[in-house]
Design brief:
By secondary structure, the chain is α/β, with parallel strands linked by helices. It has eleven helices and eight strands. Strands 3-2-1-4-5-7-6-8 form an eight-stranded mixed sheet. α4 (about 60-70) links the parallel β1 (about 50-55) and β2. α3 packs parallel to α4 (about 60-70). The longest helix has 14 residues, at about 30-45. It is globular, with a radius of gyration of 19 Å. The N and C termini lie far apart (about 55 Å).
Length: about 300
């Protein structure tokens, strides 16, 4: 018999976690907001004029609002697995800049084939493991000239937290796919010449419990099959906190995020593409970025 995968994600658990987090998500989703800004900036060189744009995994609709500003004539669709998140997204609509809200799974899109010009997806695909079904659906709904831009977390994400839990037999941190595995999956699902690059960001915290509270606030609960089914004992929690303390530098505890940015075309013919996807990689920073938590908060409010 095949051994059960301890990192398998339960979709119902994912939905429930984000439903609970909807009202407080934006106050804690600081990394998500920063990555969304970068992904939005990477669309600018292409000067798209889409008829239909899909924000796949739109969450509370903060990026959807920006997309509607950028593409005023487009029908912009905010699609998310969580009804609670989409309820919050209504707050980002205005009378003149409205977008559609659709509650659905990225692996079963309720959209017609070849009906979408551009798909934008910010830090959602890590909840689709493996990503093949989501990629296949994205490919299905994109028009022949369709463009797919997304960000997701790479395997170094939360490496300190994972190492601190390392002596525990249960899974406490999700598994994140490597950039090359994502590129291979895009090719398998029929996308053309995907371009991917990586940025590493370090967010500094006062203590590990603050990090864990922020993860809970954005709905990033542990919903893997191998998670503990009961409350973590005080001794195990204390052991994890003590091990995390070994990473403390200059009075702060780091949390690493590996961000993978990707872009691909639905069409296979070069003359079908409005521009080269290599332009998307031109903004790649490549190295590590040290980001104090307070600095990200200031960016979010500006």
């Amino acid at each position: 018999m095949t051994e059960p995968n301890p990192f398998e994600l339960h979709r119902a658990g994912v939905r429930a976690a984000f439903d609970r987090a909807g009202a407080r998500y934006e106050a804690a989703a600081l990394v998500q907001a920063r990555v969304a800004e970068e992904l939005l900036a990477r669309l600018e060189p292409f000067a798209f004029a889409p008829d239909v744009l899909l924000d796949l995994g739109a969450g509370t609709g903060r990026a959807t609002r920006r997309l509607k500003r950028l593409y005023r004539r487009a029908c912009v669709v905010a699609l998310d697995l969580s009804p609670g998140m989409l309820q919050q997204a209504a707050r980002h609509q205005t009378l003149l800049r409205r977008f559609e809200r659709v509650c659905a799974d990225a692996t079963r899109l309720p959209l017609a084939a070849q009906s979408v010009d551009v798909i934008f997806s910010n830090l959602m695909l890590q909840w689709c493991d493996p990503p093949d079904e989501a990629f296949a659906e994205a490919r299905r709904v994109l028009k022949p000239r369709g463009f797919f831009a997304f960000s997701t977390f790479g395997p170094d994400t939360l490496r300190e937290l994972r190492a601190a839990w390392g002596e525990d037999s249960r899974t406490h941190v999700n598994r994140f796919l490597d950039m090359h595995d994502l590129g291979d999956a895009l090719m398998r699902m029929g996308f053309s010449e995907p371009v991917l690059d990586v940025e590493r960001m370090t967010v500094n915290y006062q203590d590990a419990l603050t990090l864990m509270r922020d993860l809970k606030a954005i709905g990033a609960h542990n919903v893997t099959a191998g998670r503990a089914r009961s409350l973590t004992g005080k001794d195990r929690l204390r052991g994890m906190l003590d091990r995390y303390e070994t990473y403390r530098r200059d009075g702060r505890l780091p949390a690493t995020y590996e961000i993978i940015y990707a872009a691909a075309w639905a069409g296979r013919e070069r003359d079908e593409r409005p521009s080269s996807p290599e332009a998307l990689a031109a903004r790649a920073v490549g190295g590590e970025v040290q980001v104090p938590l307070s600095r990200i908060r200031r960016r979010r409010r500006s």
